[in-house]
Amino acid sequence: MTTIQNKATNPVAHLSAEDIENLGAELDAIREQVLASRGERDAAYIRRVIDVQRGLELAGRATLLFSLFPPAWLLGTASLSVAKILENMEIGHNVMHGQWDWMRDPQIHSTTWEWDNASPSAMWKHSHNELHHTYTNVLGRDNDLGYGIMRVDEDQRWKPGYLGQPLWNAINMCFFQYGIAAYDVEVGKYLAGRKDSDQFWAEARVVLAKIGRQATRDYVVHPLLSGPSAATTLTANVVANLVRNVWTHSVIMCGHFPEGVETFTKSSIEGETRGEWYLRQMLGSANIEGGRLMHIMTGNLSFQVEHHLFPDLPSNRYQEIAPKVAEIMQRYGLPHVSGSLPRQVASAWGKVVRLALPNELLDRGARTLAKVTTLPGRGRVATVESSMAA
Amino acid sequence: MERARDLAALVTTPLLPEHYLDRLDPLGSTLALRGRISAVLPETRDSATVVIRPGRGWAGHVPGQFVRVAVDVDGVRHWRAYSLTWSPDRADGAIAITVTVVPGGTVSEHLVRRARVGDLVHLEQAAGDFVLPRPAPAKTLFVTAGSGITPVMGILRDRLDELSDVVVVHSARTPSDVVFGGELRMLDGLRRIRLVERHTSTQGRVDADELESLVPDLDERETWACGPAGLLDSLEALFTERGLEARLHVERFQPAVRATGTGGTITFTRTGTTTVSDGSRSLLDAGEEAGVLMPSGCRMGICFGCVVPLREGSVRDLRDGTLTSALPGDGVLVQTCVTAAAGACDLDL
To answer: B179 and B217 in one domain?
Structure first.
């Protein structure tokens, strides 16, 4: 991928400003339809998911009290892993997006939910809901593009540190919840001297306290309660957290990193209209194809396009609107990036490995004359941020 | 026990042990006060008494008080206040509210027409000072209209033995619309109360002058009144004129829907700031322009970084025109960046 303005063939060049506003109106209509039919069925859905998640968590932890027996270890670890994934993805992420705020249930609300993850909800909501969802795939604004430790776009300036990025990505995958927490308190910015020290440490203390509570639960109290099974319960918790980390990291990589996903320059979003914002969300996201269980386990982030268009609609509805969104994208001639989970994970990893090298070594000369295009109807030429200028 | 709970909390973090117990035993919950409907008894063609067995933590009530009750309708939680109509301290612990359907009223229609035995409702503790003092005054007058009879019935059912001279002036549209009509007429027949029943469809409303002729010894009576604003306003004027305002106790029913125009006065209750805004400017913009430190985020309705409790009044979603209303005590959370005032509204900031 490369910023849309620098591409040889601009995927939206054929659309007029009027087309884009019509596109926006059609998407608004989809949103209206879901809002009009949102109700008891949806409320029952999220409560059922929460019940199942808590049931699995309790059952898993109870089974692990006897984890000395290998079948109990296997069953308990599987149950706990699934519970953690459900909590983070289908419940925590989506509740914190405000997808369920309309129920006015203070126990299932974006302002009260605290998730089973190292990063406290309040910080995560800022970096994710506010920065990532507003500035999706805008270079220099959306830090989710490589999390500040990787280069996932040709137009991100290459630094020697990126040579190790396949390794950084693998490490981040295994410790993903801590990676997110470090990212949310902006460790990188602090180390570079661009974040106020008092503020950083105030936030860091909150994160460390939460990490302490989570680690005490998983690595001290639960093993101790298991008596003779303490050691195996400890390994079960380590594995469950690892499984959750690897799974969530993989799903999230599939959202914006696969080949074919577009990025945008800062200047291209100045004065962006609603229609243009929708367009950016669609071009900047990628879906994952699979069965119902896979969708639930990804927190319906497998419908990344739909989620980015309508981040506050209940996740159980993305599946239902996906064919309509796909039809609109096809009708307007927009590329719809989608593939199976293994394919998308491989594609994202492929990019992480490829872009560890500077552009010059990748396809020398091929992009130097990249034609600069701009979003149609904007009435001005977007600033050129040529990859070779780096 | 406390130790066990604290230990359990180490395992359930970031949740509490109560979150797990909550779904298994909703009435025993310490996180939220709830009740279970144990009967729905029809009163008139459009009113019913809903009997509720309150869960753990219910602190009881004084007759004349109301309770705020919430039901989930189409998945959305709605809170309303209803007067308690049964005596407290029953052996079975049950309480009762008597609900009259308001046309188009989400909650009243749900409770009267659709609520079923076994349904869960959310409760707050009883509140209100529309109660009889102890000892009870010798001569009392109750002036009510429509569902305004409900707190008075709660009082009569509990304290009638202590009252020797009771006049009830009650207005309803027709004889069959009188909630508790049979019981009131029976008490009148037994000469326990003197009931003046007015049917507004044929006889018009009771006005202040008429009250003086209906109740000649008005000046000697401690008076409680509950009903529509018009009735209460005219009573207050009458009692003030006669220098009796200290003897009048009123309970004002809150309208189910507030003003639904476009634009209005926004009051920020904590800072005391007020600002007038039109129906197209977001609460966030209006508040910031008025100098209020507003929480904010994406400013486009997606990040939920700006939500603030709407304490009272109505706001309109700028995206789809959806109207959200809050009654005093509600605290409905609204996204200030994509909602505008739709009439006067109070924000908790």
So the answer is: yes
pLDDT digits over B115-128, tens only? 999 999 999 999 89
- Cβ distance B11 to A103 less than 8 Å, yes or no, reads no
Tens digit of each residue's pLDDT (9 = 90 or more) over A47-92:
999 999 999 999 999 999 999 999 999 999 999 999 999 999 999 9
> Is A103 in contact with B10 (Cβ distance < 8 A)?
no
The total domain count for chain B is: 3
Q: What is the extent of the structural domain holding B118?
A: 32-123
Query: Could you say which residues from 327 to 386 on chain A have a Cβ atom under 8 Å away from some Cβ of chain B?
Result: none
Cα–Cα distance, B66 to B254 (Å, whole number): 12
Candidates B11, B14, B333; nearest CB to A115: B14
Residues B247 and B268 both lie in one domain = no
C-alpha–C-alpha distance, residues A257 and B164, integer Å: 82
Question: Is B163 a domain residue?
Answer: yes
Residues in A closer than 8 angstroms to B15, CB to CB, are 114
At B61-75, the pLDDT tens digits run 999 999 989 999 999
**Is position B9 within any domain?**
no
> For chain A, what is the mean pLDDT?
91
CATH code of B91's domain: 2.40.30.10
Scored b (16 or more CB within 10 A) or e, A219-252 reads: eebbbebbeebbebbbebbebbbebbbebbbbbb
Chain A: closest CA distance from residue B307 (Å): 8
Q: Return d(Cα B45, Cα B35) in angstroms, integer.
A: 25
With CA atoms as reference, the chain B residue closest to A104 would be B77
pLDDT band at B260 (very low <50, low <70, confident <90, very high): low
Residue B301 and residue B245 share a domain: no
* Nearest CB to B304 within list A31, A35, A110: A110
Contact A111 B304 (CB under 8 A): yes
pLDDT of residue B47: 97
Domain end call among B70, B94, B123? B123
CB B254 within 8 A of CB B108: no
Tally the C-alpha atoms within 13 A of residue A358's C-alpha that lie toward its C-beta: 13
Tell me B263's DSSP state. B
CA distance B265 to B125: 31
Final residue belonging to a domain, choices B221, B252, B283:
B252
